[in-house]
Design goal:
The complex is a heterodimer of chains A (about 270) and B (about 220). Chain A is an alpha/beta fold and about 270 residues long. Chain A has a single domain, classed as TIM Barrel (Alpha-Beta Barrel), CATH 3.20.20.70. In chain A, helix 3 links the parallel strand 5 and strand 6. In chain A, helix 1 runs parallel beside helix 2 and helix 8 packs across helix 10. Chain A starts with a strand and ends with a helix. The two termini of chain B are about 20 Å apart. Classes of the chains: A alpha/beta (about 270), B alpha/beta (about 220). The interface between A and B is large, with 35 and 37 residues.
Chain lengths: ~270, ~220
């Protein structure tokens, strides 16, 4: 039976892992390959690097980090941030990444998803969707149809697009995405739990795996992302960086809730 | 040091395979052209994606004939993901004709809850195989694929291990020294490295060609 995955996310700025809410109050958290190796050892099923500076001049640094990481952590690595062209994706894969995540560039140029999938296979293409719940003016849910809705934001959650997140998710899957990384901008950095309504709505509208992101505070949130959000994988950053919860503790909670996870036989036994 | 050739045809994460092999003590020779396959003890064909573009690239780079000769001689081969699927006669994904070293075809994983099949899943042995020395039965390995190489019912003996994802499918096949794994050992943590180490350990130095030794001369070269 397929295991649900637990994925630490490393936000990288200028060659260092940073923490903080995603784009402000950045605090240096260490050397990316070092942290990646630690997480691999502690039972991470996969790693995600998000280059949050994503400046073209920083590309060389990022590729060097990816290469050093691939030497030390023998688990899958997804890299996101600033890839706008097939050739840029090729460079990131050549450095040792297994997948590339496309966000702003996919919204701006949806055909990029198709071109990348055709060149490298859909399994290598992750479309990252940053979504914000649309607040209906008036009396909350009663004012709308009763069904919550979400809007896609780009440029690190700063720019609204007018796109409906569930519709964009379905389109991204049709365009050739192999996985979706769904972040709730409302929850990100707030430690108030994943937006399971958003996850479930997207999960039910696509046939590809969905990775939950944004809002993790406790192991129970990971359980909810899978059970209520129907997510295939669950991603978190700060609770792991700050050692609030270990990957093992999260997985133990998931296993106790009847969710199938990969438990390291050597450290668990 | 044992030398492993890794075929580079622009279809996959070579870096991680090369680094994983180096981590288990092998010398890696990345072969982007057919003539580069001389002087190696074992051959690894990695790859993800569709079969037809892969076959075209192998042919264009002069790699296809040396690989077919290698397989015909039953020299040590490890196919990873697409490198396993190519061993069969053809792929239903795009109708490509593939190596034909093993009977059967690559078919879509019909009955799977979601495709691609991405993530860690259990590899359950149907028979013992040295690739799994020191690895627990049912250990988790990392999969990324939508198609599976499948031998016909009459050739079930080829199946070393199976995995369940909505349906049961062969995740490891072997005949003689030709082996293939549907998962990615280079991305499967400790057990993955162990599997690669077992492959490397199985490569007898006597099988090496182009060496000034009588044993090597007797073993013959690929070219």
């Amino acid at each position: 039976m397929l295991c649900r995955r637990v994925i630490p996310c490393l936000d990288v700025a200028n060659g260092r892992v940073v923490k903080g809410t995603r784009f402000v109050d950045l605090v240096d958290e260490g050397d990316p390959p070092e942290l990646a190796e630690r997480y691999a050892r502690e039972g991470a099923d996969e790693l995600v690097f998000l280059d949050i500076t994503a400046a073209p001049e920083g590309r060389g640094t990022l590729l060097e980090i990816v290469e050093r990481t691939a030497r030390r952590a023998f688990i899958p690595l997804t890299v996101g941030g600033g890839v706008r062209q097939v050739n840029e994706m090729r460079d990131v894969l050549r450095a040792g990444a297994d997948k590339v995540s496309l966000n702003t560039a996919a919204v701006a140029d949806p055909d990029l998803v198709t071109r990348c999938a055709r060149r490298f296979g859909r399994q290598a293409v992750v479309v990252a969707i940053d979504a914000r719940r649309i607040v209906v003016a008036g009396a909350g849910e009663a004012a709308g149809s009763g069904e919550p809705r979400w809007e896609v934001l780009v440029k690190g959650g700063r720019q609204p697009t007018g796109l409906d997140a569930v519709a964009w998710a379905a389109r991204a899957a049709d365009l050739g995405a192999g996985e979706l990384l769904v972040t709730s901008i409302d929850r990100d950095g707030t430690q108030s739990g994943y937006d399971t309504d958003l996850l479930r709505a997207i999960s039910r509208s696509v046939g590809i795996p969905v990775i939950a992101s944004g809002g993790a505070a406790s192991p129970a949130d990971f359980v909810a992302a899978v059970r209520d959000g129907e997510a295939d994988a669950v991603l978190a950053a700060s609770i792991f960086h700050r050692r609030i919860h270990s990957i093992a503790a999260v997985k133990a909670a998931m296993a106790a809730a009847g969710i199938h996870v990969r438990l390291d036989r050597e450290t668990a036994a | 040091m044992t030398r492993v050739g890794v075929v580079d045809y622009g279809a996959g994460n070579l870096v991680s395979i090369a680094q994983a092999l180096e981590a288990v003590g092998a010398e890696v020779l990345v072969a982007a052209r057919g003539h580069a396959l001389r002087g190696i003890d074992g051959l690894i064909v990695p790859g993800v994606g569709a079969a037809r573009p892969a076959m075209n690239r192998l042919r264009r780079r002069g790699l296809l004939d040396p690989i077919l000769a290698w397989l015909a001689d039953d020299r040590p081969y490890l196919g990873i993901c697409l490198g396993l699927q190519l061993l069969f006669e053809g792929s239903d994904e795009d109708g490509a004709v593939t190596f034909g070293s093993l009977p059967g075809r690559s078919v879509e994983l019909v009955g799977a809850p979601r495709l691609p099949h991405i993530g860690w899943n259990q590899v359950e042995r149907r028979r013992p195989h040295p690739l799994f020395n020191g690895i627990a039965d049912g250990a988790d390995f990392y999969f990324v694929h939508s198609y599976v190489g499948t031998p016909p019912e009459s050739e079930r003996a080829l199946v070393v291990a199976e995995t369940e994802y909505g349906v049961r499918f062969p995740s490891v096949v072997a005949r003689g020294r030709t082996t293939g794994v549907q998962f990615h050992p280079e991305r499967s943590g400790r057990d993955g490295l162990r599997l690669l180490a077992n492959f490397v350990a199985s490569l007898a130095p006597a099988a090496r060609d182009l060496r000034p030794m009588a044993t090597a001369a007797a073993a013959g070269g690929i070219a």
